[in-house]
Amino acid sequence: xxxxxQLAAYAGVTVRAVRHYHQIGLLAEPERNHSSYRTYDAAAVxxxxxxxxxxxxxxxxxxxxxxxxxxxxxxxxxxxxxxKVLRADVRRLQANRQRIVKxxxxxxxxxxxxxxxxxxxxxxxxxxxxxVVLERDAWIIIAAQAPxxxxxxxxxxxxxxDDPDMVALYRMLSGVLDWTADDPRAVExxxxxxxxxxxxxxxxxxxxxNLDRQFDNQFVELMDAIALTSSPVAVRVKAILEQRGWSxxxxxxxxxxxxxxx
Length: 262
What we know:
With about 260 residues, the chain is an all-alpha fold.
C-alpha cells in the first residue's frame, strides 16, 4: 500500500495535484487505516496515471471523468471531439501570434495592411513621423467606422500621390506642426489645397456618390475636429478656403458663388 507521496511519485504528479483530483471527484479518497493514514493501491496508481495522461494531452478536467468511464467507441468519439477543439485553439493561437509579430511594427495595431502600406509610402516621401502618426490615428478611426470602404479609399489616396501638388502638400504638412497661426506659409498651403480641390471638382470627385459622402455628418464633424486641432495653422487655412468659396475639410464642398462666406 502506498502513501499519498508515493502515489504521486509513481504517477509523476505532485501531492497537491492528487488532493485537487480528490476535491473535484476524479480520484476517490480512501478511508484512513487504523494508523489514521490514507493508503492507496495499484488501481489508484493506474487511475491517477490515466488522469494525468489525459490532462497533459489537453483534455479539460471537466471531461476527464467522462472519458475515464467511457467505452471504447465513446472514448474515441470524445477524443476526436476534443482534438477538433484543440486544433481550433491552435489555429487561433497561430493567428494571434502572427498579429503579435505584426504589432511589433506599431502601425499594424488596429490598421489593415493597405493603410500600413500607405503610411510607409508617406514616410518614403520624407513626411515627418509626427505627422504620419497623426494620420495613422485618423485612419484607425476611419478603418473601424468603414472597414468595407477602407481599401478603396486607400487605393484612391495612392492615386492622389501621383499628383505633384499632393506630394508638395504632404511635404508642407510634414512641418506644419511647428508653424504658428500667423505663419505666412499658411497662404501657400491654402493655394495647394485649392488647386487639388479644383481638380477634384472638375473630375467629379466631389459628387454625392463619392466615397467620403458615405460617412454620416457626425463622423465627418469628428474627423474635421481632429484635423483642426492638430495645428493652429489648420483653422487659419480653413478660414482662407472659406473666403475663397470652399467649405468643409473632410467632406469638401464648393459653395454657390452667390452664397456669403466667413
